[in-house]
What does this fold into?
Amino acid sequence: MTERATPIRNIVFDVGNVIVRWEPQTIVELAFGHDLPAGITSQDLFGGDIFRALNRGAMSLTETQRMFGERHGFDRKTCDRLVSALFESLVLIEETPKLMRRLKASGYGIYAITDNVHEIVAYLRGRYDFWPLFDGACVSADHSTLKPDPRMYTWLTETYDLVPEECVFFDDLPKNVAGAKAVGMESFVFTTTAQAEADLRSIHVDPDAQLEAA
It folds into this structure.
C-alpha cells in the first residue's frame, strides 16, 4: 500500500463511463443502425466542436440539434432520433452508486467533476437516484470550460473548502486524471468499479470502515 501523509477524506467521480455509460458509437447505432450517412462518424458528432460547445454551456441541446442538421444535412426527425438515442444510451453502471453509498455511509465526502450538459444532468437526476449522493458537483456547462482545465478542479475544492491532497478523483480519461494530479489530488483511471475499490484500498480508503474525524 502507498503511504500517505494526508488521509483521503473526499472521493470525486467523473460521471460518463464511471457512473453511467457514455458511448458515442452506441448512440449512432441506436439512431441510425448501420446506416450512418457516409463521411460522418460518431467522433464528428460527439467529439467535435459542436458538442464541445454544448458541454461548455455555450448552446442548448435544441441549438445543438439545429447545428447538427445544418452541418450534416439531418432533417428534424433525424435530429430528434439522435437525441433520443443519446438519452437511451445513458445506462447506469450499477456497481458504482453502490460503492458511492458505502463510502458516504462511512463518512467520506462524495463529489463530481464532469464534462456534462444541462439537459443530460437534468435527465440523470430524474432517471436515476445517484445524484443526491453528491455533496457537491462541478459541471462543465456551468463554468464554460472542460477538463483537464485546472479551473474545473480548483472550483470544486475552493467552493466546498476541500483540501486537494485529501481528495481522490476517478475518471475514464488519462488526460483528466493528469489534470487532477496537477492540482494536488490523488487520481486514478477508472476501468471498473471493482478496480476503483482496489485503488481506494491501495491508498488506505476502506469503503466499509468509518472515516476518522479530522
Q: What stands out?
A: The beta strands are 10-13, 109-114, 136-139, 167-171, 186-189. The mean pLDDT is 95.
